[in-house]
Amino acid sequence: MLTRTLCRPGPWLVVAFLAGAFGLERWVDSIGGPDALVERFGLLAPAVMVAIQAALSAAPFPSELFALVSSATYGWLAGSVMTWAGWTIGSMIQYALARRGAADVDLDERVAKLPAWLRRLPVTHPVFLVCVRWLPMGFHLANLAAGARRVPAKRQLWIAALGSIPGAVMWAGIGAGVSLL
């Protein structure tokens, strides 16, 4: 069964994305971190920072540093918007990877093996998908569950956009506060 799964494109797509995100994280670190991006890219820095934050938030790498730097550099409002955009785009990337990966696996068979209480969780319900984002690592769980359970893309987009607001505002507030010190 493992060999059959590895012959499909879904797992390799996930591996390629994670390797690319790791390389991106290493590159940002090698040029001096997010602060160096602002100096290097000038007016394009916000777009570059949002793109990098989206890729890192979709992978298991911390993207909060970009939230802090963007708000410390551009202010609370712009930092909130940049963080929100990066996290929403990252949610959609993670959702798409999970949706593609789940196409290669018999998910119903695997869900049937879960404990009854876990099978009863309403993982496709919007309230569940919004609220679970506020738990530690919940952002990833919500995106992966939505993709694997084939939640419609439009629903996932508005859920990701809504669910990313509180964290984006909080991290931007911390970054803007740090810049005042």
Topology:
Layout: H1 2-6, H2 9-30, H3 34-41, H4 45-58, H5 64-74, H6 76-103, H7 107-112, H8 116-119, H9 126-131, H10 138-148, H11 153-180
Helix pairs in contact: 2-6, 3-4, 4-5, 4-6, 5-6, 5-11, 6-10, 6-11, 10-11
3D architecture notes:
This protein is mostly helical. The protein has one domain. 79% of the residues lie in helices and 0% in strands. It is built from 11 helices and no strands. It has helices at residues 2-6, 9-30, 34-41, 45-58, 64-74, 76-103, 107-112, 116-119, 126-131, 138-148, 153-180. α3 runs antiparallel to α4, α4 (45-58) runs antiparallel to α5 and α6 (76-103) packs across α10. The protein starts with a helix and ends with a helix.
Span from first to last CA? 56 Å
Number of strands: 0
Please, what is the average pLDDT?
81
Number of domains as seen in the coordinates: 1
* Quaternary structure state of the chains depicted: single chain
Radius of gyration (CA) equals 18 Å
Q: Provide the structure class.
A: mainly alpha
Unreliable segments (pLDDT under 50, ≥5 consecutive)?
A: none
Query: Helical stretch count?
Result: 11
Order of helices and strands: HHHHHHHHHHH
User: Mind summarizing the main beta sheet?
Assistant: none
Shape: globular
Helix percentage range: over 70%
Question: Percent of residues in beta strands?
Answer: under 5%
Structural features:
11 helices, 181 residues, mainly alpha
